[in-house]
């Protein structure tokens, strides 16, 4: 069996998983027992809640004609999020790198929800040109945008680079979504102002952001993949996505914009992959591990909850797990680090996009 940490396709190695469930600094015994028991938190939902359950709740927000844009909705958590939100009557815009997979997901959604509106557009988040083209194509449709779910992600065991010569994991998981959000933000603010419905941006992050130490979080090193390690690069990109949330929330509040932004950790998600690590871990450890794994629908629940629940109306700059507000690492909460990262990223994009235009 494989393990997806946040729906992006990363298969966690047994040694890392062993570290997660056995290190007392990773999670308290109380939190672990609550997770295993599936006990509901203040929201009324917990680790066992599914995407369909949280969107059936009376406190969910269902105005007519909501439009949600989801990246990476061609498999796993992203596809389940798209399916459930379409079932609830939302217009779905899927940003997909693989259009064939995107068409298959759209067909499955329409088979279940024949009256759903599902729009498929191509995007490669590692490419600035592709993100720009996608935004131009979407804006040309003259549709509103109420919810933006930055879900897509990659994990690369080996050092790879984007066409802009940026380490691929960081380029895709963080910078691509930063640019996408930047280019669609004014449309979201305008939509919220015209409709009176709060816009919501959701960054799909991961609990492994807490593995990153301050000394190992250097913008230039992450760009060039210095001393590359796949797991570390992945964790750094997920930390960056939370810091993006923190600084964007501050800026949106400063502008008095009717748009919120939050981060979510979907949980450790079960996939249909054959148990490839058999022999590397004991049967007893695998049994314990399997009890901590979520189904794909359970993994999509927190994203759907943060997208629609009225309980978190106006809540911004927060981190959610199991459909409840949770604590992220101290580094992820560092406002000065968030502002510095935002400034560095903005400067990089300004320079690279200006060069490309000349």
Automatic annotation (TrEMBL):
Record InterPro entries: NAD(P)-bd_dom_sf, SDR_fam, TIC32
Family to which this protein belongs: Belongs to the short-chain dehydrogenases/reductases (SDR) family.
Stored PANTHER family: SHORT-CHAIN DEHYDROGENASE TIC 32, CHLOROPLASTIC-LIKE
Name assigned to this protein: Short-chain dehydrogenase TIC 32, chloroplastic-like
């Amino acid at each position: 069996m494989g393990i997806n940490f946040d729906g992006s396709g990363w298969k966690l190695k047994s040694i890392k998983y062993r570290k997660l469930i056995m290190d007392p600094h990773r999670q308290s015994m109380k939190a672990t027992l609550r997770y295993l028991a599936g006990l509901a938190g203040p929201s009324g939902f917990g680790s066992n809640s599914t995407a369909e359950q949280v969107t059936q709740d009376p406190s969910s927000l269902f105005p007519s004609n909501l439009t949600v844009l989801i990246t990476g909705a061609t498999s796993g958590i992203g596809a389940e999020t798209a399916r459930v939100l379409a079932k609830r009557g939302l217009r779905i815009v899927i940003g997909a790198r693989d259009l064939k997979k995107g068409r298959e997901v759209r067909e499955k959604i329409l088979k279940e929800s024949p009256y759903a509106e599902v729009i498929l557009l191509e995007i490669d988040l590692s490419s600035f040109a592709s993100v720009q083209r996608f935004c131009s194509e979407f804006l040309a449709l003259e549709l509103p945008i109420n919810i933006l779910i930055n879900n897509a992600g990659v994990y690369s065991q080996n050092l790879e680079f984007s066409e802009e010569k940026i380490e691929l994991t960081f380029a895709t998981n963080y910078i691509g979504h930063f640019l996408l959000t930047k280019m669609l933000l004014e449309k979201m603010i305008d939509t919220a102002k015209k409709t009176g419905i709060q816009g919501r941006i959701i960054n799909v992050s991961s609990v492994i952001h807490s593995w990153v130490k301050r000394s190992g979080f250097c913008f230039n090193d992450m760009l060039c993949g210095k001393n590359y390690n796949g797991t570390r690069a992945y964790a750094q990109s997920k930390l960056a996505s939370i810091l993006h949330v923190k600084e964007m929330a501050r800026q949106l509040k400063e502008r008095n914009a009717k748009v919120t932004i939050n981060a979510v950790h979907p949980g450790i998600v079960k996939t249909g992959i054959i148990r490839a690590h058999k022999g590397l871990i004991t049967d007893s450890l695998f049994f314990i591990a399997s009890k901590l794994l979520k189904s794909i629908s359970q993994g999509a629940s927190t994203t759907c909850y943060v997208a629609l629940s009225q309980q978190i109306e106006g809540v911004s700059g927060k981190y959610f797990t199991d459909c409840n507000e949770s604590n992220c690492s101290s580094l992820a909460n560092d406002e000065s680090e968030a502002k510095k990262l935002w400034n560095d990223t903005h400067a990089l994009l300004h320079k690279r996009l200006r060069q490309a235009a000349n």
